[in-house]
Amino acid sequence: MSRPFPAWLPAMAFVLIWSTGFIVGKAVVPVADANLFLLARFTLAALMFALAAMASGVTWPALKQVPRHLLAGALMQGIYLCAGYGAVAHGLSPSIMALLGALQPLLTALLAIPLLKEQPSSRTWRGLGLGALGVGLVVLPAMQAGTPQTVSPWIILTGVLAILSITMGTLLQKTSIARADIRASSAWQNVGAMLVAGVLVCATGGIGALRWETGPTLWASLAWAAFVLSGIGTWLLLSLVRRGQAANAAALMFLAPPLAAVQAALLFGDRLAPLQWLGMAVAGIGVWLCQTQGNPRHAQAR
Fold first, then answer.
1. Concatenated DSSP letters for 75-90?
2. Which of 117, 187, 201, 211 could be a cystine partner for 49, CB 3.0 to 4.6 Å?
3. What is the value of pTM for the model shown?
């Protein structure tokens, strides 16, 4: 008799995969324009999910539901990644962007109350608070070490837009599009993300005018981003959101910056301060509280 599938494994796999997005972003900066890279990433991911859906013979969403899938993908991946990459490229510190990202699970929990009638437990709120604190401790040394510079308020707002976008995209996954097969839905969602990246590529000069230096770094980063991050990572996230409360799934995002810091230390020689190790522990405890709260409670419909 085969052993039961560990319930924690999908969550752990998602966190490990999602955290590599920071490393990919850092690796592609010297070799490719961010929007063009994201357009290629979303295109490959859309093709992969479409082929998987057709090979499995799943039922595709009705045409009247397609705009919702496109919107969910445009928000959860297209605007989120394009705005996030763009804010960092125009001077916003990656540590500040990571700190803004720590607000996403809290915002998801707050908006899920009126929009999804999901009422997080007091244990979940404590976990969300600890998770945000942990991320703050992890990125604090990088913020202190960074060179002071004036960043336009519009760039900060672009970073905030990225967080609002992935929050709304996450919440949309709990609406009627949750009834669609994940492979078919993900194909359409990546098309929605493609539309966002495509508009930005056209607005910044077109494909021929943007940086695209082929080589092992670019191709390896693109393959990982398309098939692992947008492929396996997004599939795991959608599965987790559909199965439980949106806030609990979003809380896993707290572990991405700490794991990315460890990966940067291993790959790029970055040093980790004791405060960062403490932050990782605090964030881990926060996520543990969110994931072990018991049965979710739902707010009463008014």
1. IIIIIHHHHHHHHHHT
2. 187
3. 0.85
Distance CA 248, CA 121 (A): 10
In the structure encoding, which two tokens stand for residue 199, read together? 């508009």
Give the DSSP letter of residue 133.
Answer: H
Listed residue (189, 185, 200, 197) closest to 40, CA to CA: 197
How is residue 90 written in tokens? 């125009």
Per-residue pLDDT reduced to its tens digit, 151-208: 678 888 898 999 999 999 999 999 889 999 999 999 999 999 999 999 999 998 888 8
DSSP 168-200: HHHHHTTSGGGGS-HHHHHHHHHHHHHHHHHHH
Question: 3-state DSSP call for residue 61?
Answer: coil
User: Among 112, 82, 78, 35, which Cα is nearest to 188's?
Assistant: 78
